[in-house]
Structures are given as C-alpha cells and as structure tokens.
C-alpha cells in the first residue's frame, strides 16, 4: 500500500513539474551557466529562474503619521508586495502637507490649523490601513493608471459622502432656525432694506476672490498612495523613479535624451508682517544659466575668479538686519522699497565676480493674492502704498525694463485679474516668464475639458499635495506642453525629506523646479538628488542641455504669420546708480556664497 502511494506521489510530482516546464528550464539553465562557471552558482540559478516567477502584487499598504521638515504631522505610505511567495516591503513615500506656514500667526489660528492637520492625517492613516489596503490587494504596482483611476473613484465617493452629510446638517439647521426665531429673521430682513439709496463704503470694484477649494479631510491618503505605487513600480522594474515616470508619460517609449529642470534657488524672503515696508516680494530667487551643468551652478568654484578676488579686498559693509532662516531654507530680511533687494543681490554678485543677466538671473515670487485689500480694491505692495491691478502691470513693466535680469515673475497678480494678466503677457511675455502658482495649487480645478483653467500666462507651478495623483501630473504636463506653456514643479511649505519631487520634475520634463533655499535638510536633500540624477544621465550619455531660455511673444501670437518664440540673448544689466542704497557685500561662491555675503557682520 505504501509503495502504491509512493508511486502515485512520484507520478503526480512529475506531471506537476512537467506542466510548469521545470525539467526543460532546468536543463536550459545548466547548459547556459556551465560555460560561464560562475563563482556563485546558486545565485546565478536564482537569477535565472527569477525571470519565470510571478510579477509582484500588492499584499498590503501601511500608513502612519510622521513629522515633516518643520515638525508638523504628515502621512507616510508603505507598500508591501508578495514577491516570490514572501511578503516584502518595497518602498515608502511621504507626501508633503498642503498647509501654508505663516512666519507670524495668531495662536488661535495656529491651534485651529494644528487640529485640522492632525484630523486630516489621522483620517488619511485610517484610509490607507483599511479601505485602500483592501482595495489594492493583488494588483500590480506597475499598473499606475489603473490604480490611480481606482483612487480617483474612491476619493469621488468620499466627496459625495461629505456633501450628503453637509446637506443633512444644513437642512437640520434651517429647520431649527425657522421654528425657533422666525421674528428675528424677519426683523433682520427689514433692517437690511433700510436706506436703499445709500452706497456702501466697502463696495468692491474688482473681481471678487474665487472661493478656495475645500480640502477633504484625509485627502493626503490619495496622493501618498499614488506616489508610493509609482515608487514601487520603479523598484520592481529596476529603473529609477524619474525614468519610470518618463516611460509612463511617453507610453513606455524610452526617451533617448533627458533634460534637467533648472533650479529656482530662493535666496531672500520678505515677511508680510515684518516692520519693514516691502511686502510684494515673498521670495527672491536665483536662476542659473542653461549652459552650465547643475554641478557647476552650485559649485563653490563657480565664482572663483580674479574679478571676485579683487572685490573681496574691498571693505566689508554692514548688511541689512536679518531675522533668521525661513522654513523655505532662505534668509529672512526686510527692505523699504522694491529696488533695494534687487540692488542688494546685484552688489553681492558683483563682489564675487558674477554678472546678473549673464552669469545668473532673477525670479520673483510676488504672491500678489496675499496682498489684496478688498476694501480698497488694491494691492498693498509697501506699507501704506496701494496699487490697482492696472497700476501693478505698469509697475512690473517698469521694474523688468530697469532690471532685465528678472526673467520670471510668479503670481504677479491674483488669478481673478484675467484682463491684467493678458495685458502683462502682451507687455512682458517676450522677455520674462509670467507664472501662475496660486491658481495651480489644486490640480482638480486646473483641467477643464482638455484645457487649463488659468489666466493667460507662460506656465504654472504644480505641487504634489492632497488628492493629486501621478496620473494627474502626467496629464496636466501633457496639456501644458501642447499649449507651449512651461511646467514648474514646486515644493509646498510643509516639505518633507522625501526627494521624489525631483524625480517627478525630471520624468515629467519640467522646465524649472522650485525647491526653496540651500538650507534645511528637507530642501538640501532634493538638490543632492538633482545632482545625483545629473551624474547618472551624464554617465549614460542621455543628458541634454537646452540651448537657451525661450519666451513667448503673446502680442505676436495673435498674428498667424508670427508664431515663433523669441530666444533670450545674453542680457546686459541697465546701468545701475553709481552709489546704490544697499551695502557692499563680500563672498566667494554662488549661490552659497551669496547667502554668506548677506550675513556678514
């Protein structure tokens, strides 16, 4: 009886292995490896047979609360896959918080933000560990589009659930008010009708601000999971994340060459609530020339010239008062007029042998939406100094003409001032990038029937926050490319140490990447990642440098016969005042030494 059982088991085993072609593949493996005589024979056998193993599939997600670069809670998503019959942790991703971080804020507002942030992260952790983990089980991490579609449907369902709850609560409140205080409502209505001919002193004559899109509690789970899946797919395919993203955007068509986005390096930040007068410039950023590699752009030897050493012999002067380092990784200071920070940087560049407009360019993040006084209907650019939207356009034209090294203005106007955006594009579009950032914070509002729902501009800053998915960025950048608009990937205020943003920027073909200053670990790690990608592309001989900056002449675009963008020639600074009202600064390299130049004592 035992002999019959043994024979039966041997027969079943032989049939099982033949059905899976094990004897044939074993023979092929032995024949292929014998001429090589590898030192680690079993290792090579394992590598050989791994080609025939099943593709890894998701077995679970793990979400947990972690801290971002400023010590605030945010979400980390881990991906676990079944690999060769074993559960294995593949990767993790940390998504940056969407919450803005004011330099000065009231304690009540700060406490409310902290409660909202904690609730959002806690809800996101629950979504990841429960619903999303079960929903994505047994799916391949390489199926990014399918998984993103499922994540989008899940999020839409949560939005509808929230609307139903809010509708029920609103109906209950309405019934309660109607039944309890009908007379008060009637009296209130009569009071509002008094003096119908009187004109309100607070009447707003400008387009009102569009209502901000509410952020669904827990939405971090969608963006965090999508990014983690992309990183897992890259790991399983044994390619870097930036190449995985590029393949997704190009439908698996491997690019022969890739370009690096130019960094917008934040050097100075001006607080809106500081005692100094200047409010307009939230960030003053440096843009290196396209002809240099990133390593050369950030190298301390960049400014090591005879001209720079000659300037270093000059007497050092006292800089303006500094208030420390911002969460953006740059110096915080204050100025009393628009030209002072530009002359400050111009002097610093001269002291280290660099020429603005040739060796380095400027970009200004105006953050104009934060400056609007809706009572006056004007922007407060300096303390007590207000400008209408039309006057803002004239001011920018004058500023760029006087400082032609300025090649980018970010959020120079509110997105609601569309006519002024059009006027400014026609006046400055041929010499300066006019970029929308505030209008592009929520990606769900950007796309409308294969179009981009933003004012006329040169490009937009995209941020990977909340429910944004990798597929959303791929689709949006494709639309921007088709409309000849540039893409800038930007880091939000609540940045984390995850450096995936750089890979996204490279893979999506972004023109610039806005990472903040060369300080704080969560920001410097992204510059280091950009350097590593450059070295890898150069080693593989797939790195390509753009010829020069290209701007769009919006005024000529209206004429069919003139559609070509204008190529920026080497800029020469207009002659500055012989004695600028800023102190002389000293330094040795750029941009790190410009930071040092601004902190001399």
Automatic annotation (TrEMBL):
Keywords: Glycolysis, Lyase. It catalyses: (2R)-2-phosphoglycerate = phosphoenolpyruvate + H2O. GO terms for molecular function: magnesium ion binding; phosphopyruvate hydratase activity. Pathway: Carbohydrate degradation; glycolysis; pyruvate from D-glyceraldehyde 3-phosphate: step 4/5. It comes from the Eukaryota. Residues 572-581 have a biased composition (Polar residues). It is an enzyme of class 4 (lyase). Residues 58-245 form the Enolase N-terminal domain. Residues 160-179, 185-210, 301-320, 555-601 are annotated as: Disordered. Residues 257-546 form the Enolase C-terminal TIM barrel domain. One of its GO terms (biological process) is glycolytic process. Pfam families: Enolase_C (PF00113). Its EC number is 4.2.1.11. Belongs to the enolase family. This is Enolase 4. The lineage of its organism: Eukaryota, Metazoa, Chordata, Craniata, Vertebrata. The gene is ENO4.
């Amino acid at each position: 009886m035992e002999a019959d059982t043994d024979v039966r088991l041997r027969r079943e085993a032989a049939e099982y292995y033949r059905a899976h072609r094990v004897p044939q593949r074993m023979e092929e493996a032995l024949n292929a490896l014998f001429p090589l005589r590898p030192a680690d024979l079993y290792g090579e056998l394992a590598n050989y047979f791994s080609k025939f193993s099943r593709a890894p599939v998701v077995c679970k997600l793990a979400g947990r609360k972690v801290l971002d670069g400023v010590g605030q809670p945010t979400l980390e998503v881990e991906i676990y896959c079944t690999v060769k019959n074993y559960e294995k942790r593949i990767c993790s991703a940390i998504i940056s918080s969407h919450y803005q971080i004011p330099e000065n804020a009231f304690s009540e507002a700060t406490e409310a933000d902290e409660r909202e942030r904690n609730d959002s992260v806690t809800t996101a952790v629950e979504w990841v560990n429960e619903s999303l983990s079960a929903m994505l089980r047994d799916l391949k991490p390489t199926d990014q589009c399918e998984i993103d579609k499922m994540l989008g449907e899940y999020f839409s369902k949560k939005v509808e659930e929230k609307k139903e709850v809010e509708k029920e609560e609103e109906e209950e409140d309405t019934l309660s008010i109607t039944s309890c205080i009908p007379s008060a409502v009637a009296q209130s209505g009569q009071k509002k009708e008094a003096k119908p001919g009187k004109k309100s002193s607070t009447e707003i004559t400008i387009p009102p601000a569009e209502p901000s899109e509410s952020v669904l509690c827990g939405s971090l789970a969608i963006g965090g999971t999508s990014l983690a899946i992309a990183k897992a797919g890259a790991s399983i395919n044994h390619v870097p994340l930036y190449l995985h993203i590029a393949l997704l955007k190009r439908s698996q068509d491997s690019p022969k060459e890739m370009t690096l986005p130019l960094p917008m390096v934040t050097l100075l930040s001006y607080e809106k609530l500081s005692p100094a007068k200047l409010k307009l410039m939230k960030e003053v950023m440096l843009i290196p020339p396209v002809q240099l590699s990133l390593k050369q752009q950030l190298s301390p030897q960049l400014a090591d010239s005879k001209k720079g050493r000659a300037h270093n012999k000059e007497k050092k002067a006292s800089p303006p008062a500094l208030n420390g380092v911002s969460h953006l990784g740059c110096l915080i200071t204050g100025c009393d007029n628009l030209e002072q920070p530009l002359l400050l940087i111009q002097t610093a560049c001269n002291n280290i042998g660099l020429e603005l407009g040739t060796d380095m360019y400027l970009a200004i993040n105006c953050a104009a939406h934060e400056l609007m006084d809706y009572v006056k209907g004007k922007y407060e650019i300096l303390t007590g100094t207000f400008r209408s939207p039309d006057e803002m356009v004239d001011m920018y034209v004058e500023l760029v003409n006087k400082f032609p090294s300025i090649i980018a203005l970010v959020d120079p106007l509110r997105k609601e001032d569309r006519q002024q955006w059009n006027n400014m594009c026609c006046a400055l579009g041929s010499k300066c990038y006019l970029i929308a950032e505030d209008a592009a914070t929520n990606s769900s509002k950007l796309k409308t029937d294969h179009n981009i729902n933003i004012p006329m501009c040169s490009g937009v800053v995209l941020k990977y926050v909340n429910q944004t998915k990798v597929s959303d960025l791929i689709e949006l950048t494709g639309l921007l490319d088709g409309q000849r608009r540039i893409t800038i990937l930007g880091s939000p205020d609540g940045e984390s140490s995850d450096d995936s943003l750089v890979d996204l920027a490279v893979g999506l073909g972004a023109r610039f990447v806005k990472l903040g200053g060369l300080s704080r670990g969560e920001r410097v790690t992204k510059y280091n990642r950009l350097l590593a990608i450059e070295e890898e592309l150069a080693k593989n001989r797939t790195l390509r440098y753009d010829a020069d900056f290209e701007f769009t002449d919006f005024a000529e675009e209206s004429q069919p016969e003139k559609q070509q963008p204008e190529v920026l020639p080497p800029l020469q600074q207009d002659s500055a005042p012989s004695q600028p009202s800023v102190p002389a600064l000293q330094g040795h390299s750029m941009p790190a030494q410009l930071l040092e130049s601004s902190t001399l004592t």
